[in-house]
Design goal:
Largest sheet: none
Helix content: 40-55%
Low-confidence stretches: none
Number of helices: 4
Distance between the termini: 72 Å
Mean pLDDT: 76
Number of strands: 0
C-alpha cells in the first residue's frame, strides 16, 4: 500500500470516530433526561439596618482606607465598585493572620539583608 493511502485511512478512521463520539454525546440530554430539581427558596438577605454601620471600634478611618486601597490594588476594581462591610483586628496572638507554622518564619527572619 502507498504511504498516502495509509495516512488517509488513518486520518479518516480518526475523524469517523470523532464524529461518532460527538453524535453519542449529543444524545446524552435525551438519554439522561431526569426530573428537573427544584431549588429551595433562599433565605432573605438581612436589611442594611441590621448590618453594622462603619468600621469596628479601634480601627481608624486611615486603616480602613489602607484596607480599601489594598483590596482595590489586588482585585483590579475601583474603590467605588465595592464596599467593606466589616473589618476587625485578628483575635490571634500577635496580630498575625497566619497558621501556627507560619509564625516561625516571621520570628526567625534576619533583621537585615546581607
Amino acid at each position: 500500500m502507498n504511504q498516502w493511502t495509509i495516512t488517509a485511512l488513518g486520518m479518516g478512521t480518526v475523524f469517523l470516530a470523532l464524529i461518532g463520539l460527538s453524535f453519542i454525546v449529543s444524545l446524552f440530554p435525551l438519554i439522561f433526561k431526569g426530573a428537573e430539581k427544584k431549588r429551595p427558596d433562599l433565605a432573605p438577605l438581612p436589611s442594611l439596618s441590621s448590618v453594622a454601620q462603619g468600621p469596628a471600634p479601634g480601627l481608624s478611618p486611615e486603616t480602613v482606607a489602607v484596607i480599601m486601597a489594598a483590596v482595590s490594588a489586588a482585585s483590579g476594581l475601583g474603590p467605588s465598585q465595592f464596599r467593606i462591610a466589616y473589618a476587625a483586628p485578628s483575635p490571634q496572638a500577635g496580630g498575625f493572620n497566619t497558621p501556627a507554622w507560619g509564625h516561625v518564619d516571621r520570628f526567625n527572619r534576619p533583621t537585615s539583608i546581607r
